[in-house]
Design a protein that fits this description.
By secondary structure, the chain is an all-alpha fold. The protein has helices at residues 7-42, 45-52, 56-63, 66-94, 100-117, 119-126, 134-153, 159-181, 185-203. Helix 1 (7-42) crosses helix 2 (45-52), helix 7 (134-153) crosses helix 8 (159-181) and helix 8 packs antiparallel against helix 9. The longest helix has 36 residues, at 7-42. The radius of gyration is 20 Å and the shape is elongated.
C-alpha cells in the first residue's frame, strides 16, 4: 500500500525547507560581513549571529561551528562564481560565439566582475587569516579549475598543454587578487585587460 502525502504535509515540508534556506543565507551573509571586517581569527560567533539576527544554537545546528561556517561561505562563493561564469559562457555560445579564447574571455571577465563586487570577501580568502585545512581545499578547487579551463580552451593534453592551462589559471587567480585589492573600478578594469592580453599571448 502506497501512503499518500497530504497537501498540508507537502506545504509544511516546503515551508520548513524555505525557512532553513533563509536562515542559512542570513548566517552566510552575516559571516561574509563579519569575516571581512574582523578576519577569521578575531570574528566571534556572537558577532555573526547578532548580525544575522539569529542564535548561537542555530549557527551550530546549520553549520557546526565557525570553521565549518567559513568553509561553507567559501564553497558558496566559489559555486556562485562557477554558476555565473557557466551562464555567461552558455549565453555567448547561444549567440553564436565558438572561439575558445573569446569564450574564455567572457568567462574570465564575468569572474572578475563578481570578484570586484565582493572584493572584501575575496581578500578574506587569500590574505591568510583562514582556518586550518583551508589551503588544502583551495588547492583542490584550483586543480578542478585547471581542468575546467582546459576543457573550455580545448588545449592539448600533452605536457605543454597542461602547463599552459595551469599558467593561465594562475594568471586569472593572481589577477583576481589584484582586482580585489584595486582602489577603483578603473584600476580593476586595467588588471582585467592586462590579464586578457597575457592569456591571449599564451593561447595564440
Amino acid at each position: 500500500m502506497v501512503r499518500k502525502t497530504s497537501d498540508a504535509a507537502v506545504h509544511s515540508g516546503s515551508w520548513q525547507w524555505s525557512r532553513t534556506a533563509t536562515t542559512q543565507r542570513k548566517l552566510l551573509d552575516a559571516a561574509a560581513a563579519v569575516f571581512s571586517e574582523l578576519g577569521f581569527t578575531d570574528a566571534g560567533i556572537s558577532d555573526i549571529v547578532t548580525r544575522a539576527g539569529s542564535s548561537v544554537g542555530s549557527l551550530y545546528h546549520h553549520f557546526g561551528g565557525k570553521t565549518e561556517l567559513f568553509l561553507a561561505l567559501w564553497d558558496d562563493y566559489q559555486n556562485e562564481h562557477e554558476r555565473l561564469v557557466a551562464a555567461a559562457v552558455a549565453k555567448a555560445r547561444k549567440s553564436g560565439e565558438n572561439d575558445p579564447l573569446a569564450l574564455f574571455d567572457v568567462g574570465s571577465r564575468t569572474y572578475f566582475d563578481y570578484t570586484w563586487k565582493h572584493r572584501a570577501l575575496e581578500r578574506v580568502f587569500f590574505e591568510g587569516d583562514t582556518p586550518p585545512g583551508f589551503e588544502v581545499l583551495r588547492r583542490e578547487r584550483g586543480r578542478e579549475w585547471v581542468r575546467q579551463n582546459s576543457v573550455l580552451l580545448g588545449t592539448a593534453e600533452d605536457t605543454l598543454g597542461r602547463l599552459t592551462v595551469a599558467v593561465i589559471t594562475d594568471i586569472i587567480t593572481v589577477a583576481g587578487h589584484e582586482v580585489a585589492l584595486s582602489a577603483t573600478k578603473k584600476e580593476a578594469d586595467d588588471v582585467v585587460d592586462a590579464a586578457a592580453v597575457l592569456v591571449a599571448r599564451l593561447v595564440r
